[in-house]
Amino acid sequence: MKHSEPSADLPQGQDAYRRLLAEIRAGSLVPGDRLLEVDLARRLGISRTPVREAIRQLEADGLVIHVARVGAAVRSLDPGEVTELYEMRGVLEGTAARLAARAASVVELDELAAINAEMAAGFGNPARLYELNRQFHAALLDAARNRYLARSLAGLQKTLLLLGPTTLEEDERARNAVTEHESVLTALRARDELGAESAMRAHVAAAHSIRLRQFRNRAAGADLES
Hints:
Elements: H1 12-26, H2 37-44, H3 48-60, E1 64-67, E2 71-74, H4 79-103, H5 106-120, H6 126-144, H7 147-160, H8 171-189, H9 193-225
Antiparallel strand pairs: 1-2
Pfam families: FCD, GntR
Keywords: DNA-binding, Transcription, Transcription regulation
Protein name: GntR family transcriptional regulator
C-alpha cells in the first residue's frame, strides 16, 4: 500500500487527516476498510490522540462511519448514491460554468486553456492528470465568483473521494475529458452561458457513466470471488 508523506508544517492531527484523505482518494484506503487507531498510529508514526482527531474529522466529512462491532470504517456508497452525487455535481458545476461565461476575465480563460493543454500533453500519467483536472475545475469555479457555490461544491468533492482513483487512469476517458473541457472553453469564450452550462453537464454525465461502469465491474469481480 502506498502511503502519503507526513508534513512538518501541520499539527499532527491535521497532518494525519490530510494523509488519510489522500489515501482514500488514491484508493489505498477503500470503502469498508477499518480504521484502527493502534494500527494507524503505528503506520503514521504518531500517537493515538491525533489519529483519533483525524478519524473524527473524517467522520464529520461523511467519509467515515462507525459500524457496530467493527468500529470506524471508510464509508461505502451504493450506485444510487453515486448517481445522486453526480446529479448534484452536474447542477453545481453546470451553474459554475454558466456564471463563469458571464464573469471570467480573458486572463482566467487563458489559464483554463493552458491547464487543458497541459492535460493533453500528460496522457499516461494519471496522478498528473488528476491534479491538472482538479486545477481546471477549481479555476473555473474561481471564475464563477460565487462563494456559496464554492462551499457547496467543496463538501460534494470530499464525498466524491470515496469513489477512489481518478477515472483519468483510462486513456480514452482522459482524451475525452480534454475534448469536453475544450467544449466548455469554446462556450466560455463566446460568453454563451447556456452553452457553457450544457457542455459542463455533459462532461459530468460522461464521468458518471464511467463511475457506474466501474461499480458494475467491481460488483462482478466480488461475485466471482465469493
